[in-house]
Hints:
The complex is a heterodimer of chains A (182) and B (57).
Chain A: E1 10-16, E2 23-33, E3 38-47, E4 51-58, H1 77-85, H2 87-94, E5 99-103, E6 108-109, E7 114-115, H3 122-134, E8 140-145, E9 150-155, H4 161-175, E10 178-179
Parallel strand pairs in A: 4-5
Antiparallel strand pairs in A: 1-2, 2-3, 3-4, 5-9, 6-7, 8-9
Chain B: H1 14-17, E1 21-22, E2 29-30, E3 39-40, H2 42-48
Amino acid sequence: MFNHPGYDLKFVIKIPCKDITSHKFTLVYKFYSPLTKYIYILNADYHAEDVFAIKFYVKQHSKSDYKYSKITNKKDLPNILITCAKVVPILMAEFPTASFGFAASRSLDDRANKVEGLPNNQRFQAYSYLACKKFGTQTFAHFDYPAISSYLLLNKNSGDVEKKEKAIVDMFRANYHTMLDI
Amino acid sequence: MKPQKNFTQKAPSKGDRLNWTPLRDVKPVVLNKELTKGRRLDNVISNNSHPANFLVP
């Protein structure tokens, strides 16, 4: 699994963030899967501590409050995840000391109107498997947070790894007091 | 007389099968120190991954 080629990412726009949080700007990319016939939007949110939070969703769900949680059941997961992972080397060309984090949303079953639990959820299992297979330990220190289904690729060129990890986690906690309820 | 249609029962959805939480009962999770305690995985990765497949070494 995950030896798929993925698709081409196209840069769309840079959106500055003018609020008082540590979120500085968002780089928006898009890609198309000919198998699912969906366009996907990928957001890379750049924060203080030189860290990007990577998120993606199906474009046609963009107006939904649950866009990160919806299940499409159209398959093609390996190509979609590889395409999202491809943004890391693209961003590193411009931000060589950046780290990358992601939080796996819990899945929403529209039919039953039920939501998966947060710890170690199914998206987290797929994302962390991909992170282990596609990113080595020469550039990144890998941290996982199964209780909140999150993962951090910490750039080893950003200084003391343990201190930097603490600074990033503290920054996220100070800015996002809660995980989204969904 | 026409033969009656055989109605099969729809399989329960994933949320029902896996006993997920009803959407209305889902609460935000406060990010406390306990929940944000990370595990470093570098050793697991070096042993289980093939460098040729890396996007970033």
